[in-house]
Specification:
single chain; mainly alpha; 7 helices
């Protein structure tokens, strides 16, 4: 599927926003959150570049399921490490195990529903963390109100990741053409919300 001019523009702006966040938008955090956020926005940057250069059909690559898991897991781990000190170790363990489980079940042939279940659990927990945690702490006054935008971006990336993942499992929730058509816009809007939330929150 050929990229429209609008989608190419949106991808270019996504690359610029992700580049800014990696280079200047995560200063002042401790080591693990900086690492986690750098990985997440680095993957967004690379994904947007690959789609821009190679076209939207690059999303058909089998590695997409694994890559689409890195972003929410990294962001969620960084947020929990910053704002839920009592759960740091447990969530880091979940992040590592979740990523390894998704990678393993996508690397070998498994005929049952285990890969889909693991994928749904991993994306579900990470997505809900990114969605709820920024909104809750912003509403409690622990951060500025606009930090809640990170949560809105989390909801979008959670939906996008699940759509891509289930498309790759052969059980699409939405048709492939629809996902491919709107994915660049979703990626741009998600990145913009994240950057705005971290910048002004």
């Amino acid at each position: 599927m050929k990229l429209s001019s609008l989608n190419r523009t949106l991808l270019l702006f996504t690359v610029l926003l992700a580049s800014y966040q990696v280079s200047a938008g995560i200063d002042g955090f401790t080591a693990l959150p900086i690492t986690a956020y750098t990985i997440a926005f680095g993957v967004i940057l690379i994904a947007a570049l690959l789609i821009f250069i190679l076209g939207i059909d690059v999303l058909d690559s089998p590695i997409v399921v694994i890559v689409s898991t890195i972003i929410p897991l990294s962001l969620a781990a960084g947020l929990v490490w910053q704002h839920l000190a009592s759960l740091r170790t447990w969530y880091l363990v979940f992040t590592i195990i979740g990523f390894l489980a998704v990678t393993l079940t996508r690397s070998i042939q498994i005929q049952n529903k285990l890969p889909v279940i693991i994928l749904a659990i991993t994306h579900g927990i990470a997505g809900m963390t990114i969605f709820l945690l920024p909104i809750i702490i912003a509403s409690q006054g622990e951060t500025k109100p606009l930090f809640a935008l990170v949560g809105v971006g989390g909801a979008l990336i959670g939906v996008g990741g699940l759509l891509l993942s289930f498309l790759k499992t052969g059980r699409p929730i939405v048709s492939r053409d629809t996902i491919m058509k709107f994915f660049p816009a979703m990626l741009f809007l998600t990145t913009a919300l994240f950057v705005a939330g971290f910048k002004f929150g």
